[in-house]
Each structure stands twice: as C-alpha cells, then as structure tokens.
Amino acid sequence: MTDWPKVRLHVVTGKGGTGKSTVAAALALALATRGKNVLLCEVEGRQGIARMFDVDPLPFEERRLTTGLPGPDGRPGVVHALHIDPESALLEYLALYYKLGRAGRALERFGVIEFATTIAPGVRDVLLTGKVFEAVERNSRNKGAIQYDAVVLDAPPTGRIVQFLNVSNELAGLAKVGPVKSQADTMMTLFRSPRTAVHLVTVLEEMPVQETVDGIAELRSVDLPVGGVVVNLVRPQDLTAEQLDATDPETVSADLKAAGVEADDALVESLISEGHEHAERRALETSQRAIVAGLDVPTYELPRLPQGVDLGALYELAATLREQGLA
Amino acid sequence: MNQPPRVGPAGPTAPTLDVDALLDDPGIGIIVCCGSGGVGKTTTSAALALRAAERGRKVVVLTIDPARRLAQAMGIDALDNTPRPVVDVDAAAGGHLDAMMLDMKRTFDEVVESQASPEKAKQILENPFYIALSSSFAGTQEYMAMEKLGQIHADSVAAGGDGRYDLIVVDTPPSRSALDFLDAPERLSSFLDGRFIRLMLAPTRGPARLIGAGFGLITNALTKILGAQVLRDLQTFVAAIDTVFGGFRQRAMKTYALLQADGTAFVVVAAPEPDALREAAYFVERLSADQMPLAGLVVNRAGAAPAGSLSADEAMTAAARLRRDEPTSTTAGLLRLHADQVRLVEREQRLRSRFAAAHPQVATAVVPALASDVHDLTGLRRVGELLAEQ
User: Confidence band (pLDDT; 50, 70, 90) for B136?
Assistant: First the structure.
C-alpha cells in the first residue's frame, strides 16, 4: 500500500517547469480514498488549482473542489482546495490569536499589513506556512473547521523550499523571543516530524536532477524529512536501443505495407530517424535516472502525456501514483 | 489516403523573428530575456550573447542562475560580481564576450556603500532587517539585476563610458512571473516610500501627530506580537535606510527609463506549454502598456515536426494491426513514437497559433528541443544557429 502511512502533510516541490503543481493535484486526488478528506493548498498566488480543475479563482477559504480517485470499493473521498495569500493569512492570524480590535484595523490602515507581507524578513513565508500548519493541526479557536486526513501543499520551487519551511531559522535574526518565535518553533516540530514529507518533482534532465540532488542534501542538512522523488514527464518506453539497432528499412517498409500503410522511402527513413532521436533522449534519461536511483529515496514515475494534462489526465496520474505507492 | 493531415484550423502564423538583424543592429545596446521559470531563459540569453559576439559585437552577458556545467564552460562558476572574459569565443569578426553571474546581496551592499557614509553603511549592513531584505526579499534579485544592468550600461556602454561593451544581454531571475522583473523596482520603492515607513520615521511630526493615537495602538500591537527588540531594529533600519533611499529611487527610475529607451530590446522566452505562453502573453501586454520595446518571442523546446504526412491516428491503427500479429514489433514501436510526436507537435502548434491570434504583431522564433542539455560553447552556438535559421 502507501509508502507514507504516517504522513499528514505532503509538501510537493520541484524546479520550475517540472510539473510540481500537476503532481500535487494528482497526489491530492490519489490520497482522497473513501471517507477521507484531503486539502490541496497553493501559496504562490498563481491560481493554478482553479485552472487545473476548471473552477473559479479560489478565495482564502477552504472550498470543496472535487471527489478523489475512487478506491477498490469504488467510492472516493473529497478533495478541498485553499489558496493561501499572506495578507489574508495575517489578518486571520491576528484575529485568531490577538484580540486587537481597533488596532487590527489600524494595522491595515497604516500599511503595516502590506509592510509585513512584502518585506518584513521571513514573515511572508511564516504566514503561509503558518496557515498550512493550522490546516494540518487545526487550531481549537477555528471553530467548525474540517479535520483533514492529509494536506498536500503545492510549495515554492526546490531552490526556495528549505528557506520556506525552515521558518524558525528565518525568524531567528528577528524575533528571538515572544509568541511569534514560539509559534514558529511549534511549526518546525511538525515540519521536522515523520508526519511531514517533502516530495521533489523532477524531469530526467541534467539541471532539474542536479537541483533535486542539491535540494535533498539541503533538506537533510536542516533535518527536514525528505519524501519521495517523483520523476515526471517520462517518455514512453516502446523500444529498446537493441531493437533500434537491429532495425532495417526493408523490414519496416514490409511491416508498414502489411499494416496497410502506403510506405515510401521518405516515410521509412523519417520513422527510423525519429526512433534514433528517441533513443538518444532515452539514453540521456537513463543516465539521469541512474543519478536519481543513487539518491536512496523512493522514486515514482509519471508518463509524458502527448496531449497535455487535462482534468481526466489528473485522475490517470493519480491512479499511477497510487499504484506506485506515493499515496 | 495520403492527404496532408489536418492540423486544426490553419490558424494565424506569427511573423518571423530575425535574430541576426537584432544582434547586428548597432542601435541596440541592451537585450533583456524574460519569461517564466524553466523555459530556457539562461540558455537563450547565453546563446544570443555568444552569437552576437561572434558576429562582431562587444558583448557582456549578465546571468542569474546558470546550470553548473554551463557556468563552468563560460568561466563564471565563481560568484564575484564582475564580468569575466569567456574563452574560446571566435573573435575573427572583432567582437568579444564577457560573462558574469549576479550576486544579489553583494550588489545591494555595494549600492548601500556607494550611497551612505562608511559608519552609516556599516549600521545598515549589520541590521537584521537589511540582511533579510538584501537576501530574501521577493524582488530584490530582480531589482539588483536592474541595478547591475544600469551600472554596466553607465560604465561601459553609454556615452562617456569606457566603451568596453556595445551590447548587454540580461537574463532575468527565475521568478514565478515574468512580470516580477518589471515590477521589482516599483515594489521596492513603494515599500521604502510606504506609509508605514514614513510613520516609523516621523511619529510626532506634522500630520502624523493627528494619527498619533493610531500609531500608539500599532506599536503596542507590534510589540505584543514581535517583541520590543524587533521594533527597535526596525526603527534603526528605517532611519538608516531613509538616508540612502533617495539614491535608490533615483537609480531605479533611471534604469527603468533605460529599459524604455530605443536602444533596448526585450525578448520574451517561453516553452510551448499553456502556462508559459500565458505568462508570455501577460508580459507582451505589459511591455506594450509600458511602451517598452519588444523584439519578439522565442519558443524553446518545441517538438520537431516529423517528416511525411502519416497522421497520428493512421500510425496508431497500423501499430495496433502489427501488434496483433507480433506484440514486440519494432515497426509498431516506431509508429507509436511517430503518433506521439505528431500529437505533441499538433498540440504545440495549436497553442502557438492561439498566441499568434491574440498577438499578431509579435515576431516569433521557434527553437526545437535538443536531444541533450546545453553545457558548452558548442551547444550554445548550435542554439544560436537554430535561433537564427527560422
């Protein structure tokens, strides 16, 4: 079954262009089996969830998004979505923890909210991660909130993930004491625990793989729990190099005729050269895959879909992730 | 049955971006490559710079985060914030190429040092708010890329400079949105000019007295949440930065004006994916709204269109027939690969023609996906050729 039975918070990161948002969405669908409530969060203000699931832009409010991927019993759980922006998170935080009354409104009027969320060091990240923390642990003051079985975070890219999650470090130079500091410490306890896993999405190319290697080392150096590596956009593996080497134009031509395709030499040649290009890329992928395999973390592979990813494809990817044990 | 496949509606096609004409134009002194993350901006800017240099321009490329091996090949794997000559550039046409990797914190420190007295500068550089601002503020990297661009331009390109360069190619930081690059200076300025900062500076002066009561509430609230030390650090920071702030704003505005000038050309880089093209569209719209000169769009990593006219469906049908008799048929495998490739290319063409429909004026260059990663000058030259031969 799942490789990560204890994990409540799945953080999904990856280099830009590797498809981490797609993987996060597919993982949320895969986790939502019968009777389970899963929350999918995004923190980068891009409304990617709304676009992927073809719904209106999400507010700072947990919304029922869709049903998950049905399990063996044919019954799915529910996926909810939350778009976290730092301004709303700060206002909610202040309302939850401090009865500021007029001061709360004054903070907004005097540009303090803007200040805190654009510039105050680390505060932006702490607010975002703070809300994620709240969604996992649920604050008793947040009455009537849904208890989630799993929270999936579509996180900032690999290059920023450690800074993003290592909140108490970010605040270290700043808030040495006080409630914010102790809250940051509590958050770190969750992020460093076996209930959190940081999954890294990559493609089998040099730079993304290198970033994954660096990212894992960096996560480990600050005791953040490394989850799995999801290798995305993997090319189909229809042909082996040996098969390609053994290909001769005449056989291909004869096969094409047998299959009812009018085969001229140009077509045969084009098919064979496409095959060789494919083999070249595959060889590069294989060398990168060896590096990923050497990382000593569980890996999962998702195929490249020539037609792109639509809503149906997300469920297919979810099924693949579940089969392989990420969910 | 061998009719050409119908590839969607014969949608609009964009005019072609003439890369060599752009690189050869002596009136162009700055080329800015922008686009969302992961689309190959760094490679594109390095390839443009190399090609320009080998066509006789005196070029410096300012890059942000190159792949390690590419950085090594260009001799810029050490971060020292100074342009270094790239070796093995063909100088036959009289050009040369320098490259540098941006060190954001160091650039920021240098700005502070140039704007403030030594004691004041020290005070600023040691303040925790400054340290965080200079190393992690979303936008600092963009702002510093602009700052460095302004510096190099003033020192070496503009009239009165040392004339070391006549073209600067800038690779923009890997941000979520391509727009961040343009918005960063404004963001930093408006932060430094914000109500809150002014409030911290002058809580008892002039009109601020009227809001004195509100200010008391705020400081109390902040002390409660963050602790008194933080507030003291913040006040020190704000007071210190205020003295250098005028300089900041002025420099940012000057660089922004430089970007709007005729000597600048923006190249928007994208991949044939919906998200990347959407970002590119935002950026194109923004450039035109801000009257910034757009040279064109580069679409990287495009699938190569297979030769011949065998459609995806025909190929899949034929593959299925072959597999029935021989499940491991190599020809069937080739046919399936072909079908995948045709579908990929059709999808990309659809995306591109949608972009062209909305932005018919944008000249475009399409660069096919390379089988291997680019990590040396030979690879960059190849990309340069592909960019030029449209």
Answer: low
- ipTM strictly over 0.85? no
Pairing of strands A150-154, A9-14: parallel
| Location of structure tokens 């529910």 | A78
Q: Classify residue A33: in a domain, yes or no.
A: yes
Residue A46 token pair: 């891009």
- B2: pLDDT strictly greater than 60: no
Tell me, yes or no, whether B277 lies in a domain: yes
User: What token pair was written down for A269?
Assistant: 């040649």
Residues across chain A: 327
Residue numbers of the domain that contains A37: 9-238+296-324
| Low-confidence residues of chain A: pLDDT under 50 | 121
**Nearest CA distance, A92 vs chain B (angstrom):** 14
Domain enclosing residue B24, as ranges: 19-193+252-308+352-388
Q: Is any Cβ of chain A less than 8 angstroms from the Cβ of B331?
A: yes
> How many domains does the structure of chain A reveal?
1
Q: Given CB atoms, is B375 within the 8 Å cutoff of chain A?
A: yes
Q: Which CATH number is A181's domain given? A: 3.40.50.300
Q: Are B348 and B281 in contact (CB under 8 A)?
A: no
Tokens of A179: 């409630």
In chain B, residues 217-276 whose CB comes closer than 8 Å to chain A: 217-218, 220-222, 224-227, 229-230, 233, 271, 273-276
- Nearest beta carbon to residue A284 from set B336, B339, B372: B372
Please give the residue of chain A at the shortest CA–CA distance from B375.
Answer: A206
Q: Between A44, A173, A243, which is nearest B333 by CB?
A: A243
CATH of the domain at B186: 3.40.50.300
